[in-house]
Every structure is written in structure tokens, then in C-alpha cells.
Amino acid sequence: MNRIISIRIILLLFLGNIGAGNLLAQSSIPPFKKGERVIFVGNSITHGGHYHSFVWLYYMTRFPDKPITVMNAGIGGESAWDIKDRLDEDVFKRKPTYITLTFGMNDTGYDIYWKDNAKELSEQQVKKSLDNFKEIEEQLLAKDKVTKVLIGGSPYDETTQISSFLFKNKNDAILKIIDAQRSTAAKNGWGFVDFNQPMVKISLEEQKKDSTFTFCRVDRIHPDNDGQMVMAYLFLKAQGLAGNEVADVTIDANDSKAINHKNCKISKLKKEEGSLGFDYLAKALPYPLDSIPRHGWGNKRSQRDAMRLVPFMEEFNQERLQIANLEDGLYRLTIDGLLIDEVSSERLANGINLADYPNTPQYQQAMKIMYLNEERFEVEKRFREYLWTEYSFLKKEGMLFADNQEAVNKLREYLPKDPFLRASYDWYTKAMYPEVREVWGKYMDAIVNTIYKMNKPTTHQVKLAKIR
Predict the structure, then answer these.
(1) What is the pTM of this model?
(2) How far apart are CA 106 and CA 167, in angstroms?
(3) What is the pLDDT of residues 112-128, one digit of tens each?
């Protein structure tokens, strides 16, 4: 099938699945530039979520010579009024050049939707959120050299048939906040991307086949890693990065000539009896997809599970190899002497996606980066647990950043009645010491420096040998 036609078909199918209007409504947001310091501000979905880490992994592998820094500034349980009060210390102090902001899940309340006057209470919650958002807007406007992007938060899933508390019409309240975010972004010339409605559309389609499908299996609130990857996909798509291939190679076997080589270099092309070989140097690495459910709110699904929900592979992870005019038959494909696959001349003529093969040397190189980035994520999470304890408990006691025995004693009073604090308390008792935080920070820096040293693509020897 003609490649351009096939991509158009994929896009049309996708638009049909999640609603063309929702994707087309996404405004263009700036891609990150070399040296950018990006901070993602939000609630627990950012605090413990992977979407920002998945976005950074894309930049680590796709733009190896353009290092950036991505920082997590999520605090679990927060609403706009909480975020407003920590912007100076937790966000601006870290000197970001690019800020994303999402809120709304906690702002819209929970058990109020079980009350007789739920509509009135919901409207009050939304008003309180938007009043505080006005103050956040003023603080952001003062940072005139910083790129701002507002994110319409992921949905509260009211339609899945799971046994979890249901707050009916809560997502409608979230949508009112998202509408205000969209309007504010348009007014100020900021970026805006909506996670909510595209994810709702995907959920509704999946629930036609399985009524228990949801991105948020535990509580209708916190997306599992497949949902976090969908959020990363939507963010990267809004940045206009779809169609940015890892590499694209077309070789004419008759003429022993590379007739197309995009984002890569082909050299030493040699044809012998029953075989074809060449050296291949891409300028990017394939995006590695984790198949293991990682840290989160009872996560059961992995990043890779999102691939059946969005066309990430088609749009963002193409490392295309096409060999035209090969003698008919079956060929053994090796890279650096490693068997990758046995492929027919017909498939090679149509083109294969090397990013579909986790056993290629370049994919294995990317996997190392993925695991290092995951380690960085886990260390950064320690800082977020420490700060969650500070802002959620010690601030209201007038002990913000006291970091002393008195603060520890105060936390111990909360421990018997707060399971969330019990989960974070140990990290606080370590991170309260500045020397510990300093070592953790240096460790994270060392991981990132290692990633940007080892993410440079290398030359590989590709060979096709006819089997029959």
C-alpha cells in the first residue's frame, strides 16, 4: 500500500475513534528547545504520574543532541488554591523556561455529588477554583519570558462499570474548569492541550467492548500507565511532533543505491550473490515501550498497553526500512550480526518498521535509557513525597520546612489516622536532612548526564541474506 495513503487511513480511523473535533481543537503548543527547563505543575496525577517522564523519554531518544530538563511539580490532593500558594517556592525558584499547569480533579470536590444540593455545591467549588486560578494567572503573567501551557486534566471516569465510588456529574464540573483554562490560554497567547475529552472518547469506545474498561481502575481518578502514555501522546501531538520519524530508508537492490535516507546516513552499500549489506547511522533512537506496570495507584497496565488505544507507533515511532527490487524469497535480517527477523522480499518491498523489533541493537540502547530514566523518576518521586508531607501537613501547623524533631512529632500525631501519610512518612524522615536531599539531587543529575552521554546513535551493520 502506498505509504502516504496508509498513514492517511490510520489517521482517519483514529479521528473516527476518538472524535475529530477533540483533536482538531487542540491548539499548537511549542516543542521544547535545546536547554529548556520544563516543569509540570499539577496534583497527584502529576505527582505520581508518568506522563511527563514518558514525554522526556521521547526527547531523550528522538533528539539526543538537544538536552532538556523536565521537572515534576505535582502535589497529591491539591487544588488551584493550594498550587497558588506554592508557586514561588516549588516552581519559580527552580527557574523554569517552560511551565505546564493542570488542576481541577480535587477542585471539583467528591462527596458533594451525593447531596441533595449537589448542583449548587458543585458550582461553588468551580467558582472557588476559578477565583484562585485568576491569582495564578497573574503570577504567570509576571513571568513574561516563560512559555506557559495549560493542560485540561484527565477525566473522572463516570461511565466505567467497576465497583468504586461514583460521583455523578463530577467530570462535567471538571469540564467547566477546562473551558476556563482554554479561554485563558487563548486570551494570553498561552498554549493549551486537552487530555480530558480525547480520553473520554477512547474510554467510551473501549467500554462498548468491555464495560469495565477504564484508564483509572482503582478509583476512577488516577490513570494507570496506559492512560499516562495516552496523555504523553496527546501532549507530543499538540507539540506538532507527529510524523517525526526515527529514520526512513529506501534502498534499490538492483542499483545498490539508497534512493531515500531521512534522518540517517547510509554507507558501504554492497550487493553480493543472495545478500545485501550496508552501514546504517540514524540520528535518533527508537522510542522504547515498557511492558511492565510501574509505580502508581495500583497500576495493572503498562506503557506498551496504550499502543492499542492510540496510533503512537504509526505517528511517533517509525524507523522504516524499505528494500525495493529484491529477488523474490525469504531473507534473514541481521544487525551487527544479531538475528532480527526472517522477512519476505514482499514485506521488505512494502517496508518494515525496525522500531517494532525490541531485539535491534538500537532499541536495546534505547531500553537502557528507559531504565535509567525510570530510576531518575523514582528518585524524583522521593522529593515529591517529602514536599507532599510539607505542604499537606506541616504548612497548616506553621512548620513548613522546619525539618526538625518537633515536625516529626507532629506528623506522628497524624500517622494512626492517615494511610497516605504512612506511605510517605519514611521518605520525609530521610529527606528532612538537606545532606540527603543533596545526594539525591546529585544522583539524579548523574543519571541525566549519563543518559545524554549514552543516547547518541552509533553506526550499525545491516545485512539481508537470502534463505530461500
Answers:
(1) 0.93
(2) 12
(3) 999 999 999 999 999 99
